[in-house]
Each structure stands twice: as C-alpha cells, then as structure tokens.
Amino acid sequence: MILNQVYSCEEILQDMKELSETYTDFMTLRTMGVSHDERPIPMIRIGLGIDSLVLTAGIHGRESVNPVLMVKLAEEYAKAYAKDDNLNGYRVRELLNRCSVCILPLVNPDGYEAATQGFDALRNPILRQYCKMRGIEWEHWKYNARGVDINRNFPCKSYIQQQLGEYPASENETQALMKVFEEYDTVGYIDFHSRGRIIYYYRQAMPFAYNQKNHKLARYMQKLSDYNLGKREEEYMSRLNGGSPVNYYSELLKKPAITVETIEENARYPLDPSYQEKTYREIQALPLEIINKT
Ligand SMILES: [Zn+2]
Q1: pLDDT along the chain (294 residues), means of 10
Q2: What's the per-residue H, E or C state across 199-214?
C-alpha cells in the first residue's frame, strides 16, 4: 500500500484480501458485518496468539486517513512477522504469537465513501436522499448512511439517544464491532480517530484502579507518538460523549480501552492524504507497545 493517496472502500478491501492471501499461515480475513448501504465491514487478524488486541478506525466517515494507516500497519506487521524482522525494535513475530491483533480499518464504510466521494456514492436511494437532506456537507459527514453517529450508539452507561428510531446498538456497524468483542478473547482495545494528536484514556464509569492502568498504558503510547494526553475532565465534561465503543468495551470487559486522535487539530476536512505518511510513523509502534506491556 502506497501512502499519501486516497483509497476507496473497494480498494481497501481488495488490499486486505490480497494481504490475507499472501500470509495465510498467520493471517485471516473475516467480514464482521454488513453496513446499511450493504458494504462489508472487514477485519484482519494477524498472529497466532489466542488473545487479541483490537484496533479500529473509520468509525467517523470523514476521518479518512486512519483506515489507510490500519491497512498499512497490517501489511508492515505481516512482512516483519514473515521474515521474523524487528519493527522499531519490537520483535513482531514473538509479540503477535503471544497476542494477535484484530484490525478493523473501516467500521463505517458508508460514512467513509460519503465523506471521500460525496453522497452519490451511496447506492440506496432512500439513504442517499436522507443524507443529502441533513444539511451537512459531504466532506464533513461522520455518520453512517442512516445519519447515526456510531461513536454514540453503543449500549453503555453514558448512552444518550441522538435521534428518533435510534437506540443502543441499533446500527449494523455497532453490532459488527460488538461481535468482535464477544467472539474473541481480547486484552485491550485502541480506537483511532482524528483530530487533535491526543490520547484519551479516562473512563468515567470505571473505578480508580482501572483508570490508573489505562493511564499507564496511555503514557507509554504518548512517549512513542509524541501526542498529548487527554485531561480526564475533557472526557466526561460533555454528556454528549456518551455511547462510545471505548466506554462500552471498558464496562463490558474491564480491560484497557484507549482513544487515539491522530492529525493536528486545525486540519481541514476532507483530510489531506499527505497526512498519511507522517501519521503512520507516529502510530505504527503503538499496538506493539501495548502488547509488549500487557
Ligand atoms: Zn472520530
């Protein structure tokens, strides 16, 4: 995968397919669900560890850089694994045989298509019309094709209904990710968003000891990425932050769940693909570090 380029959902999926066919010994590709506009929600799993670390990107459509980085990450990890090479000083094969990584680069494929190509990329005429009528420019679209923010749709303590007809886990995209948490033995979860170059670790519904551990992991990640650490007030001051998958995951499994916001705060949408290379260098070792420290 060549960085600093725009990729369609189709191309991302194709890349993942080719990867999994190249490295059949330690890599599997699985479709965890289908979006409301009928696009697959793919997951690639790398490593032979029974436990897994889950990585997600693209929950918000307009955050179009991270999905590409996740596929690049899968590719680089696979190459290093196959050759038993070190990556940034990490012994990839050893780490991924201890703990696999489950990567979902495109949790919200419809949102990604809309925010990178415009609403005409949506196939279902009813959904297409509905999205157009919301009065939001397509470059700024963060929702799924039904206009729901997936990052607010998870059944956790902080969930708040956003609109009529929406309820906890009402969306296909939400259910697809919940299925991952259900079916795999996981040790932690990192959710990549944009913007801000900041790492959020504080989970309001969780006890002190949980947050202490989460904070420690976030500090390791901060050192590697040079991002800021989110202040805990920022995470619970706004009641509008409820219903996120990191909250859901932490409450369900009591394991570390961290949000990484890539890309500078004042970047404009659509995000310039030239952010990909620089951002990739900032985040590429984060999952390995988490496995190393868990
Ligand atoms: Zn986001």
Answers
A1: 96 98 98 98 98 98 98 98 97 98 98 98 98 97 97 94 93 98 98 96 94 96 96 63 92 97 97 98 98 94
A2: EECCCCCCCHHHHHHH
φ and ψ at 252, to 5 degrees? -75, -45
Q: 13 alpha carbon to ligand 1 midpoint, in Å?
A: 21
In the chain, how many domains are there? 1
Q: What distance in angstroms lies between residue 282's CA and the mean position of ligand 1's atoms?
A: 18
Q: Which residue has the tokens 């259910």?
A: 175
How far from the centroid of its chain's Cα atoms is residue 103's Cα? 8
- Cα-flanking dihedrals φ and ψ of residue 168, to 5°? -55, 130
Centre of ligand 1 from the C-alpha of residue 194, in Å: 6
Q: How far is the CA of 85 from the centre of ligand 1 (A)?
A: 33
Q: Distance between CA atoms of 66 and 72, rounded to whole angstroms?
A: 10
pLDDT, tens digit (0-9, with 9 covering 90-100), for 47-76: 999 999 999 999 999 999 999 999 999 999
Q: Find the CATH number of the domain harbouring 144.
A: 3.40.630.10
Report if residue 97 sits inside a domain: yes
Interval between CA 175 and ligand 1 midpoint (Å):
18
From ligand 1's centre to the CA of 86, what distance in Å? 31
Residue 254 lies in a domain: yes
3-state secondary structure of 52: strand
Phi, psi at residue 31, to the nearest 5°?
Answer: -95, 120
Domain extent, residue 140, equals 9-293
Assess if residue 4 is contained within a domain: no
Give residue 24 CA to ligand 1 midpoint distance, Å: 32
* Ion ligand 1, residue ranges at CB < 5 A: 60, 193
For residue 189, the model assigns a pLDDT of 98
Residue 3 forms part of a structural domain: no
